[in-house]
Write a structure and sequence with these properties.
The structure holds 2 protein chains of 2 kinds.
Chain A lengths: L16 H6 L7 E7 L23 H13 L4 E6 L8 H10 L3 E6 L6 H8 L7 E6 L5 H8 L3 H14 L6 E6 L7 H10 L3 E6 L6 H8 L3 H14 L6 E2 L26 E4 L4 E3 L10 E4 L6 H7 L1 H6 L14 H4 L4 H6 L15 H7 L22 H4 L8 H4 L7 H9 L12 H9 L6
Parallel strand pairs in A: 1-2, 1-8, 2-3, 3-4, 4-5, 5-6, 6-7
Antiparallel strand pairs in A: 8-9, 9-10
Helix pairs in contact in A: 4-6
Chain B lengths: L8 E3 L3 E6 L2 E6 L5 E4 L2 H9 L6 H7 L7 H13 L3 E3 L2 H7 L1
Helix pairs in contact in B: 1-2
The chains are: A alpha/beta, B alpha+beta.
Protein name (chain B): Mycofactocin biosynthesis chaperone MftB
InterPro entries (chain B): MftB
Pfam family, one (chain B): MftB_chaperone
């Protein structure tokens, strides 16, 4: 992988914090640790392509050794995810172990194991206020959420939020991946968060993992990016009402920066440890090109973090490439590395969702989407698979079996097109337009 | 001049300082605030607060010239706002001494 040639590696002695961060830190500020690739759900946009447990998954003892090392390195908290981390039988044991070793935990869950009993445990002094719970929800209604996360997942998430509220757990997070389908629900998400005494957290849809398969269909449209930006500006103006995980720095090119570092932290201030101990540059870059090493094979996490060739390269300042002549480069800094990589764009060019429109131009050009380097998706679908994929598995029916007028003449076909959203039939000429509109309707399964 | 300069202060007991090339990262385990101390001199001041009779002495011990004391006092007020540092009860300090 070539990121950019000939960059200086000597850290300046002064300069802004962001400039200092670009040269990397002795330990990450925040670290994501996917505990397992196993998951009860099969979300269409899963950025780690999770589903099946990897047989090489770290054992309980190995995981505790990682926590010991994080404590020595003074990594003050980790974001634990997966897969679904709570279905690891030792999850609660590892949670307590981390908290007892001054490593705070924020874990992401779909809520499946947040029973009333577990909720009471999370609210108890045993967790000492060092535990944050983040419930994933990608629609403010079951229709929108279950479309990408699978049937029943909305109810599961809301039940978990209710259990946490009933147990007196304060300030849970509702974590939303912003999509074309849910940008219009931002106010509804905020109302939900308020209802459960939770904080809303919005993050960006990345074309990573299975997200690559649905990104074209689900990533927000240009006008929705603007809607999102305006909404965020309004709701982050007075402090920390809405969290973004520093996700949307590509939107800074609209004008004013959003709160946060507005910097790609990959390998500099963040990284990812995967279930088998592989260390990647960031949570959205689970691909061999961004693999820095393995903490079992390469002498521990600290060794990988401080000496891997990949991270050294990421810590030298990046050149702007095609973006350097853009007046907004200082705001967005070229956007998200992972979003560029997984859409087959050059890393020193514009973000695919560049709000100045350079991304669309780049996407229209010649590009090759990289093949995934690993996939833990379930081999055969289960009842939890999202509806949007089931539509593609419907047996084909001949056009005239559903419409006696199919293909009769162009005038008739045109009238089918205009009625596509309400017609279940699929005339050959209209099939493309129709499949899209039908596939957004969860009642069509 | 800020009255803080004549007072005894200390790093909060729930704060950990992690050395970094640019200075240090301060983390408060109680309120989970993360703060960056951007200058090594500021880190030396903060670390030296508990051992100094007052803030001014801590600044002098860290080699901060008097002309910058006001600016450092403002930075320390910023740290106090999130309980990274706090005033030290005089009696407790005397007992320790």
């Amino acid at each position: 992988m070539t990121i950019a040639p000939e960059r200086p590696t000597r850290r300046p002695e002064t300069g802004s914090l962001v400039q200092q961060f670009e040269y990397g830190l002795d330990a990450p500020i925040c670290l994501t640790w996917e505990l397992t690739y196993a998951c009860n759900l099969e979300c269409a946009h899963c950025l780690s392509s999770s589903g099946r447990r990897d047989p090489r998954e770290l054992s309980t003892e190995q995981a505790k050794a990682v926590i010991d090392e994080l404590q020595r390195m003074q990594v003050f908290y980790v974001n634990i995810g997966g897969g679904e981390p709570t279905i690891r039988p030792d999850f609660w044991e590892l949670l307590e172990y981390a908290v007892d070793h001054q490593v705070g935990v924020k874990f992401s869950t779909n809520g499946v194991r947040i029973t009333p009993e577990r909720a009471r445990f999370l609210a108890s002094p045993a967790c000492g206020g060092y535990v944050d719970v983040q419930i994933s929800l990608d629609g403010a209604t079951a229709e929108v959420n279950d479309y990408v996360r699978g049937p029943g997942s909305y109810d599961t998430a809301l039940r978990a939020l209710q259990n946490l509220k009933d147990a007196g757990f304060r300030d849970a997070k509702i974590s939303v991946v912003c999509t074309r389908e849910n940008i219009g629900q931002l106010d509804a998400f905020k109302a939900l968060a308020d209802e459960y005494g939770a904080t809303l957290r919005l993050t960006r849809l990345r074309p990573s993992g299975r997200g690559a398969d649905v990104w074209d269909e689900l990533h927000p449209l240009p006008e929705q990016q603007r809607e999102l930006y305006d909404w965020l500006m309004e709701h982050t103006a007075d402090g920390e009402q809405v969290l973004t995980g520093d996700s949307f720095f590509h939107l800074a090119a609209f004008g004013e920066s959003l709160p946060g570092l507005n910097l790609c932290g990959a390998g500099r201030v963040v990284c990812l440890i995967d279930p088998i101990g592989d260390v990647y540059a960031c949570p959205f870059a689970i691909h061999e090109n961004f693999l820095a090493g393995n903490l079992l094979a390469d002498g521990g996490f600290q060794q990988v973090w401080q000496t891997s060739a990949l991270f050294q390269e990421l810590r030298s300042p990046q050149t702007g490439g095609a973006c350097s002549s853009c007046q907004f480069f200082d705001s967005c800094r070229g956007g998200c590395m992972a979003a560029k990589f997984f859409t087959g764009l050059p890393l020193d060019g514009p973000d695919p969702e560049c709000v100045q429109g350079y991304g669309e131009h780049a996407l229209a050009g010649e590009r090759t989407i990289p093949a995934p380097s690993q996939d833990h998706s379930k081999a055969s679908p289960t009842r939890n698979q999202p509806v949007m994929l089931q539509l593609l598995t419907r047996p084909p029916v001949s056009a005239c079996a559903e419409s006696p007028l199919a293909g009769f003449d162009t005038r008739v076909t045109a009238s089918f097109l205009s009625r596509a959203a309400t017609q279940p039939a699929a005339a050959p000429d209209a099939s493309q337009a129709q499949r899209r509109s039908v596939s957004f309707d969860p009642d069509q399964s | 001049m800020d009255a803080l300069l004549g007072e005894p202060w200390t790093l909060s007991p729930s704060v950990a300082l992690r050395p970094e090339p640019f200075g240090a990262l301060a983390y408060h385990f109680g309120n989970r605030k993360l703060t960056f101390l951007k200058r090594p001199e500021l880190v030396a001041v903060v670390r030296g607060l508990a051992q100094a009779p007052d803030v001014r002495t801590a600044l002098e011990n860290a080699g901060v010239p008097a002309s910058q004391h006001a600016a450092y006092a403002a930075a320390l007020r910023g740290l106090a706002a999130t309980d990274m540092i706090r005033p030290r009860p005089v009696r407790a300090a005397e007992e320790v001494a």
